[in-house]
Amino acid sequence: MAARESSQAALLDAFSRHLGAERGRSEHTRRAYLGDVRHLLAFVAGRGLAGAGDIRLADLRAWLGDQAAGGAARATLARRAASARTFFSWAHSTGRVERDPSLRLVAPRRVRTLPGVLRQDQAGTLLDVAAVRADDGDPVHARDRAVLELLYASGIRVGELVALDVDDLDLGQRVVRVMGKGAKERVVPFGAPAARALEEWLAVRPRLSTATSGSALFLGRRGRRVDARQVRAVLHALLTQVADAPDLGPHGLRHSAATHLLEGGADLRDVQELLGHASLATTQIYTHVSVDRLRRSYEQAHPRA
Question: How many domains, in total, are found in the chain?
């Protein structure tokens, strides 16, 4: 038993290195894939199989079927099937398993749901609330305002935001250099309100900075780089002060920014580049959001709707 566990740990460690070094996957993605593969290996162990080399297509289908019967969402099943395919493709190509049992594995198609977004007036109110709170002289509140302004102005991911360093910001050109998925760098513009909020934050940032702060753009009260959970907590707290606003996370501001850009007439491919989407199909979901809003407005206002 101990030898098998040691061998499995070594296999997963090698897979993790492959995801990071060769495929450029983020830490979050690596954790998700490794968690899925561990879940699979635990499932087949319960069926009496010794390890990855003994797994067949029927076992993979049984694994997904068991989760579906337990109420797992289609998105979860699709991701776990993708994790299994990635794992077995790597394991087979490197000689760790004799065959790839996932070649004909099909998971339920993901249902593309419309992301929750703020209306433009709600986004404006949210940022007004953050600005008023920042007037109290607390540097953390100045940081919170700058964080929300930049998220909404640029549409960057929260993981990209918390990884920013001071040198990634160019206030003169009003652009920020972002390292996105797959270690792909892009330069994203932002507007004058975000620039003002960032200037005010940088003016008080030294009050939180410590010897260990390094070059992190956004800091917490103890001088360490802010993390995504802190950003999420700030957004949740301030959204409670916005009438009828949905309870969104930071990704909701990204969705809102993309939707409002398209509603304002921005070109779809420009929005794709701004968001750092590899595929235009990913960006196109925001056109569905805009059409859905248009349809609701039409049905409410037109006498013959």
Answer: 2
User: Do 163 and 279 belong to one domain?
Assistant: yes
44 in a structural domain: yes
Q: Where are the alpha helices (DSSP H) in 225-276?
A: 228-239, 250-263, 268-275
Give the tokens for residue 129: 């609330």
From the candidates 18, 80, 141, 157, which is the catalytic residue? 157
- Pair 49, 128 in one domain: no
Q: What is the model's pTM?
A: 0.62
The one catalytic residue in 277, 295, 296, 298 is 277
CATH of residue 86's domain is 1.10.150
Give residue-wise pLDDT tens across range 115-125.
578 999 999 99
Q: Is the pLDDT score of 302 beyond 70?
A: no
**Is 99 tagged catalytic?**
no
Active site residue 79: no
| The domain boundary residue, chosen from 93, 110, 139 | 93
The residue whose two tokens read 């580049």 is 273
pLDDT tens-place string over residues 129-173: 999 999 999 999 999 999 999 999 988 989 999 999 999 999 999
Which of 162, 160, 166 has the alpha carbon at shortest distance from 181? Answer: 160
What value does the mean pLDDT take over residues 253-269? 83
96 is catalytic: no
Active site residue 184: no
Note whether 149 and 280 are same-domain residues.
yes
* 181 among known catalytic residues: yes
String of DSSP letters for 9-53: HHHHHHHHHIIIIIT---HHHHHHHHHHHHHHHHHHHHTT--SGG
157 is catalytic: yes
Q: How far apart are CA 297 and CA 294, in angstroms?
A: 5
